[in-house]
Structure formats: structure tokens, C-alpha cells
Amino acid sequence: MLAMTSTRTAAILCVLAASCVSTAFAAPPCDVNADVLQDTRTFAKTDNQTPWREFRSIQDLPDLSTDGGASAQYWREKDGSPSAFVDESNEDFSIHTRYCFNNAGQLQSVGLQVRTAWGWGYRQAASVVRGQLQVDSSEFFSTTNGKPIPRPDGADDIPAALKPVLYLTTSKLPFAALLAHFRNPGPK
């Protein structure tokens, strides 16, 4: 009886230890709505025809075209790991994607939020393992109150918008060439 209890106790401790280890090594959530840190670099391309440029701040961004315009922010977290937030919009929906990298500049996790003009949105949290996206959670929601809803009509019409573009390293970000340069104060 004592041996059985000891074996059971050991098994329980192993399970608890394993769950703690897997939690400790899990990628932190890459929340689209999390605050951006102070020391942020801001980039934008006004449309499909213009290259990415750096700006002093998000307030200094020009108007972005709904035909390929995008903005981005890039910063380092408190632990030194890079993060980026990319915002793209067109006439019918906007796509907000946060990329969280490890200290080596490799993509660890992605947060995605799509908001449509039709009253619904989609959010997704995902980890990146060996270059592949592994969705941890996803749901459609009402843009009125933020509450989950069933898959709406029209979701099948924008399948590409519901999948984040993966930049597996910071060097693959669309504005990566600008990261190597000192801050460009951009237009006033």
C-alpha cells in the first residue's frame, strides 16, 4: 500500500513538474491590444506604389491609402526581444497584426485582429513552431461589443485577411532595411 501511494505521489509530482516546465517555456502571448513601449520606431508606406519610410511618431504619419497603405511600429520589449505591430486597412476591413520575436530575431508568436465594416471581427493568437503557425485560440466577435459570435456570413469572402502574413525573422519584416539605419526623423 505504501509503495502504491509513493508511486502515485511520484506520478502526480511528475505531471505537475511537466506542466510547470511546459508553461515556463511557452511563448508569451502576443496581444494585439497590449501597450506599445515608449522607445518605438514608426514606419509607413502610403500605398502600393511607395516604399516604406520612417517617421518621428505615429502622429506624424501621412494619410494612408486604402489601396495598399500600411503603418508599422517596432520596439524592444523589457527583456530586449523585438516586437512589431503592422496595421493595414482597406475600404471594407482593417488588419492589425502583432509579431513577437525572441532575442535572436526569430518569430515566436503572432496576434491578429481583423475588424470589418460589416459589424464583425476575427481575432487569433498563435505560436510559431519550426516556421509553422500553430493557432492557440481564435474566434469571431461583434465589433459593437467585442463578444464572441458564430462564424459570420462573408468570412469566406476574405480568407487571406484571416491568416497573418508570417515574417519568420525580423530581417523579413517589410521595413527591415530601415532598421539597420539610424532613426530617420522623416518629414516634419
Key traits:
188 residues; 9-stranded antiparallel β-sheet; signal
Q: In sequence order, what are the helices and strands, one letter per element? A: HEEEEEEEEEH
Cα-atom radius of gyration: 20 Å
Q: Ranges with pLDDT <50 over ≥5 residues?
A: 1-27
Largest sheet: 9 strands, antiparallel
Strand content: 25-35%
Indicate how many domains the architecture comprises. Answer: 1
Query: Total number of helical segments?
Result: 2
* Portion of residues within helices: 10-25%
The counted number of beta strands is 9
Signal peptide: 1-26
Keywords: Signal
Textual characterization of the structure:
The protein is of the alpha+beta class. It has helices at residues 2-25, 176-179; strands at residues 41-45, 53-55, 70-76, 82-89, 93-101, 107-116, 120-129, 132-142, 148-149. A 9-stranded antiparallel beta sheet has the order 2-1-3-4-5-6-7-8-9, with no helix packed on it. Residues 1-27 have low confidence and may be disordered.
Compact description:
The chain is an alpha+beta fold.
Q: Could you outline the blueprint of secondary structure elements for this entry?
A:
Blueprint: H1 2-25, E1 41-45, E2 53-55, E3 70-76, E4 82-89, E5 93-101, E6 107-116, E7 120-129, E8 132-142, E9 148-149, H2 176-179
Antiparallel strand pairs: 1-2, 1-3, 3-4, 4-5, 5-6, 6-7, 7-8, 8-9
